[in-house]
Design goal:
Radius of gyration: 16 Å
CATH architecture: 3-Layer(aba) Sandwich
Number of domains: 1
Shape: globular
Helix content: 40-55%
Largest sheet: 3 strands, parallel
Number of strands: 5
Order of helices and strands: EHEHEHEHEHH
Distance between the termini: 51 Å
Structural class: alpha/beta
CATH topology: Rossmann fold
Number of helices: 6
Strand order of the largest sheet: 1-2-3
C-alpha cells in the first residue's frame, strides 16, 4: 500500500489546499494530511481547530486521514510508514523554497521522496496569509476557502477587530 504525507499549517485551509489533497489522494492508497503544530508560531486557529475543520471537510474521503504533528517532518513521515511527502506549488517562488525543503528532508532521510503537484490555475494567486488579510478587511473569500472555514474565519476576525478596538484586551 502506497501512502503519502501532505504537511502544512493550514491556517486557514484554502480551496488550493483541498485541490492538492483531492488530487494527491487519487495517486496514493492513503494520504495523511499532517497539520503542523509549531510552538514557535502563533497561528490564527489552534491546531485542534485546524484538524477539526479538515476532518469535517474531508469526511467523505475514505483514504485521507487528518493528524497533527510537531517536530521534524521526516520523523512524522516515517511514523506513519510512508516515504513520500506531497507539496503543492503555485509558482517559481514556491518552487525555490520547496526545493530547499525537499533537499533538506532528503538529507535527513535518503529514503524520503517529495512529490510536487502544481496548483490548479484558479488557486495560483492566493495564500493562507492573503486569505486572512482579505477576511480581516471584509473582502470576499467565497472562492478561496470552504464554507466551514469562512464561517470560522469571520468569527476570528470579529474577535481580532474587537481586541484592536479595545487595545488588545
Amino acid at each position: 500500500m502506497k501512502s503519502a504525507v501532505y504537511p502544512g499549517s493550514f491556517d486557514p485551509t484554502t480551496n488550493g489546499h483541498l485541490d492538492i489533497i483531492k488530487r494527491a489522494s487519487k495517486i496514493v492508497d492513503k494520504l495523511y494530511v499532517a497539520v503542523l503544530d509549531n510552538p514557535s508560531k502563533t497561528p490564527l486557529f489552534t491546531v485542534e481547530e485546524r484538524v477539526s475543520q479538515l476532518k469535517e471537510i474531508l469526511k467523505d474521503h475514505d483514504n485521507v486521514k487528518v493528524m497533527s504533528f510537531s517536530g521534524l517532518l521526516v520523523d512524522f513521515v516515517r511514523s506513519v510508514g510512508s516515504n513520500i511527502i506531497v507539496r503543492g506549488l503555485r509558482g517559481v517562488t514556491d518552487f525555490s523554497y520547496e526545493f530547499q525543503m525537499a533537499l533538506s528532508n532528503r538529507s535527513l532521510d535518503s529514503n524520503i521522496e517529495t512529490l510536487f503537484i502544481s496548483a490548479d490555475t484558479q488557486y495560483l494567486f492566493f495564500s493562507s496569509s492573503q486569505v486572512k488579510e482579505i477576511a480581516f478587511f471584509n473582502g470576499n473569500i467565497d472562492n478561496m476557502v470552504p464554507d466551514i472555514v469562512k464561517t470560522e474565519l469571520q468569527k476570528k476576525m470579529q474577535v481580532l477587530k474587537a481586541q484592536q478596538e479595545t487595545g488588545g484586551k
